[in-house]
């Protein structure tokens, strides 16, 4: 089983809003869409599966718990100029979870997609 893409699934409330967010602001390309249930977008080797409430991934579990969007897991996108990306995205009205944080490996910030899922922008040292 070989696939050149890494696949990550995000549960979302509104598939089209998330497609628009990732393609407009973060450089993803729409690969396929069955909105409002599902779509997938691609950036480099990352395939992001956007699964809405009507998708099979959104169905309740046997114990009755329903999958929900959001949480603290996130995709991690490396950028060359974090300050420029933050300025560009703020200008576009993108919502951020925090301010830029510096650590031993570089600098990062978290932004929030329309469903509440996090995306980390990271600039290595």
Task: Summarize the entry for a quick read.
The protein is an alpha+beta fold.
Strand content: 35-45%
Assign the CATH architecture: Roll
CATH top level label: Alpha Beta
- Identify low-pLDDT runs: none
What Rg is obtained from the alpha carbons, in whole angstroms?
Answer: 15 Å
Number of strands: 9
Summarize the biggest pleated sheet: 5 strands, mixed
- Give the integer mean of the pLDDT values: 93
Q: How many DSSP helices?
A: 2
**Structural class by secondary-structure content:** alpha+beta
- H-E order: EHEEEEHEEEE
State the CATH superfamily name: 2,3-Dihydroxybiphenyl 1,2-Dioxygenase, domain 1
Total domains:
1
The first-to-last residue Cα distance is 35 Å
Shape: globular
- Might you state the CATH topology name? 2,3-Dihydroxybiphenyl 1,2-Dioxygenase, domain 1
- The share of residues in helices is 10-25%
InterPro entries: Glyas_Bleomycin-R_OHBP_Dase, Glyas_Fos-R_dOase_dom, MMCE/EMCE_epimerase, VOC_core
Pfam family, one: Glyoxalase
Keywords: Metal-binding
Protein name: VOC domain-containing protein
Strand and helix map with partners:
Layout: E1 6-11, H1 15-25, E2 29-34, E3 38-43, E4 46-51, E5 74-78, H2 82-91, E6 95-96, E7 101-102, E8 106-112, E9 118-124
Parallel strand pairs: 1-4, 5-9
Antiparallel strand pairs: 2-3, 3-4, 6-8, 7-8, 8-9
Organism: Lentzea waywayandensis
InterPro entries: Glyas_Bleomycin-R_OHBP_Dase, Glyas_Fos-R_dOase_dom, MMCE/EMCE_epimerase, VOC_core
Keywords: Metal-binding
């Amino acid at each position: 089983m070989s696939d050149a893409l890494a696949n990550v699934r995000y549960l979302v409330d509104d598939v089209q809003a998330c497609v628009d967010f990732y393609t407009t602001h973060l450089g993803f390309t729409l690969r396929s869409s069955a909105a409002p249930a599902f779509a997938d977008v691609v950036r480099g080797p990352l395939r992001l599966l956007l699964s809405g409430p009507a998708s099979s991934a959104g169905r309740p579990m046997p114990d009755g718990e329903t999958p929900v969007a959001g949480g603290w897991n996130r995709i991690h996108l490396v950028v060359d100029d974090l300050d420029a990306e933050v300025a560009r995205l703020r200008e576009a009205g993108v919502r951020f979870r925090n301010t830029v944080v510096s650590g031993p490996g570089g600098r990062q910030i978290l932004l929030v997609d329309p469903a509440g899922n996090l995306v980390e922008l990271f600039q290595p040292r």
